[in-house]
Amino acid sequence: MPPSNTPPPPADLAHFRTHPWCATLLDDPSYTISDMTSRHAKPSTEDLLFGLILKTPSTISHCVIQIPHPKSPTAQVPSLRALLALGKDLNGYPHVCHGGIVATILDEAMGVLIGARQARAEELAVREGKEPGRVPTSLTGELSVRYLRPVATPQAVLVRVEVEREEGRKIWLVARMEDGEGVRLAEGRAVFIQMREERDKGRPMRPRI
C-alpha cells in the first residue's frame, strides 16, 4: 500500500515528537514525512486490518512514514522508514508483542515501499510522455522473519525497509525493526511478485513464484 501524498495526522507527529530519538528522525531534511493510506479503511474492505483492527489507542496508535527525496529526476524509491507506536493489546506474552504481529508489521512496511515505487513508476511514465496507466500491484510471495529480541510494549519502534534486488516481476526486500536505542529486534525478508493483468478482462491473475 503506497504512502499518502498528504502529511500524517498532527496527533501522530505530536506523539513521536515526545520521543527525542523519533524527533531527530522526523527533522531529517532528506526525507518527506507522509501518512500511510492503509491506516484508512476503504469501503471495499481493503485495509481494514491496519485501518480499523490495528488502529486503536492500545494496538498501533500512531504511525508515520518517511520517504527519501529522489537522488535524481528519474530515480526510483530505494527505501523508507516507518515509525509505529505499539500498545499492550498486541501482546502474545506478558509485555511482549506477538510474533505474528511483528511479522505483519514488517510485511506491511515492505508493502508500503512497493506501493511508493509503483506510484513513482507511474509518475515517471507520465513525465516521459508515455500513456499513463496503472502499474500492476505486487503481492507478498514469500516472507521469512528472524526474531532477534523480544519486542516490548508499549514502545515506539522504527522499521527500515530497502530493496535488495529486482528480477522480472519479482522484487526482494528486507525490513528491519529496531528500538530507540538502535537495537535490532526483528528482520524480515520477502519476495513480492507483480501481478499479471488479463488483457481481455483486466482482472489480476494469481502470482506464481
From TrEMBL:
Pfam families: 4HBT (PF03061). Residues 96-183 form the Thioesterase domain. It comes from the Eukaryota. Transmembrane segments: none annotated. InterPro entries: HotDog_dom_sf, PTE-AB_protein, Thioestr_dom. SUPFAM superfamilies: Thioesterase/thiol ester dehydrase-isomerase. PANTHER family: UPF0644 PROTEIN PB2B4.06 (PTHR47260:SF1). This is Thioesterase domain-containing protein. The lineage of its organism: Eukaryota, Fungi, Dikarya, Ascomycota, Pezizomycotina.
